[in-house]
């Protein structure tokens, strides 16, 4: 990858190693991919010291902006900065257009699926998805049976995790339809790119993401029952891991950030306490899980919810995004059936394939997982954030045995997938570039239409050799440049 005429004083990718992984910036022959050429040229006009200064300036800016997240694991501090790497991930227009079509197809099918399982249950009656799989799901909420949310939309905001394997093909790793987080990091990473590489960003022709809050508010307004609706963001509170994002999005949309203490059900409506008295709330973008929403219906011990809110929602007097019950499609076991779900409702083959998935609740799959656990990634059905997961090739024999026992005790709660060598993007490590594994979480809004934001949060496993990209597990973020 030697750049002709390059001086030793300037930064160079000449010693960058792809090491047999699919690399987003360089092909297998070491040639820079077309979308990265402008960026590569710009980097190689800078010294390593200057690039490092820009990286450090971005990190200081994150800290100054208060872009942090909370972690709860033992021995960790309460609050941490969300790490960023300033080398972007670039996706060309043709690839993105294909992803966009695939994500729209997937969300359309999943929304029909959620509506069906809480109403006619045709897909269960026809045996396409096993009934006991739905009824045993922790996220299948019986109070939602017969529910019809505004405009029949359940999953208003989705963050779908995508990966590439060794062959460069995109695959869906999992669906996040409850309270997907990370969009604030996508927005702030773009602002940092504007400060760090303004010329490259302009010359490369990158689609904007900064209108996300406007699009989000338009979607929330669309599902309201009244014109000029009052919209709020409902947060569990300051100790939630994504509290920064809750406050950021409320501020960007120009709406109130509220917690349970600010809302009350009165006279058949949800009302917000204000300095001028109580005000009717029309739309709630809720950032707490379903079962904490209403202690009268779900978890009676919840102090985060609003008593009576579910009944108001059922009567159509307040809209909730996402609708309660969407988590049934978040279940990692249901994920394995999504190709069949797409075929059933749309009569189409999936545009983006799933990762091959073994369902431990099925006897043959379960035996395969128990016999080959050393080569597989095992996941709990309803965990997130990298928790409840075993990466077989990197785990100890003791951990293998522990998970074997867990699977035997509750096979319904586990799936397994092959260990996939995620694609890599160069990251700045000191004054040179090293490859780190990444995934991509695009954000999809479902209002009057289904809109895929052109970018998303590229999550990066900053620890060398790690495949775990979650921020709670040592991961960070990159800006994602989608080209026109």
From TrEMBL:
It comes from the Bacteria. This is Circularly permuted ATP-grasp type 2 domain-containing protein. It holds the Pfam family CP_ATPgrasp_2. Residues 88-461 form the Circularly permuted ATP-grasp type domain. InterPro entries: ATP-dep_Glu-Cys_Ligase-2, CP_ATPgrasp_2, UCP005522. Transmembrane segments: none annotated.
